[in-house]
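During data preparation, a discrete fold description was generated, as reproduced here:
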Amino acid sequence: MAATAEHPVHNVAKAGFGTGTNELYDRARPSYPPAALSHIRNALAASAPLNVVEIGAGTGIFTRALLAHPDWSQSVNQLRAIEPSEGMRDVFAKSVHDPRVSVAEGTFDSTGVDDGWADLVVIAQAFHWCLDYDKASAEFARILKPTGILALIWNLENRDGAPWVAQLRDRIEPEELRTPQFRLGLWRAMFATPSYTARFAPPDERTWSYALTGTRALVLDRAQSKSYIAILPPDDKAAVVRDINAVLDRADGLVWLDQKEGVFEYPYKTLVVIARKK
């Protein structure tokens, strides 16, 4: 789907993250590892206080993690959250309570932020939905200070972490409807666009592998919070739930933390990409 004035947001993202889906998203999706947040802070040359623009801020999961992190809690001057989904903005406003934070409608290539305002532009779990990488790069460069950085961060189930996670991913990935999911790496095309190469240095990437705490209910909720699962017809969604339950019943490679309470390791990876403005 091409980027147009009429369709600034991907249709599957618009439907899958629309009003009524956001409470589940906020409850089910994981936060971000503290080491990754420290990595972003250490990449910044600027001293506090810092102006942060978070694009695709969603329900505030990353925002809350940032504001609670010891490297960030006292470093933020203002954080301007930009989010195209009205439903997500509503949950964000209810879940983020900090006088330094505001939330407004906007997209990757139209933030409404002043020229040269931001020390950091950060996009968490969202940039794979970008429709025009060249326009987005130009917007990031416009709103960043000369010493500013762009940080992209994603969490994803680690299919290499356990056989049951690979089986989970094998079941849900065919439902993706050819959408530009993070795992496909289509977003890397930004690094070859004219606006990026003229304004940013080559990107630096770092990955963390770790295990979160999981339960059957959490695995099911997390799968259903994915945009392409959220928009499935009821019968198809029920089939996904049935098949995930079967994966968990087989428990292939599942590591129990507390079997009596149904708590186990949930292998994950986090990728951070840092791009410095030239």
Observations:
- The beta strands are 50-55, 76-82, 101-104, 118-124, 144-157, 204-214, 256-258, 263-276.
- The two ends are 31 Å apart (CA to CA).
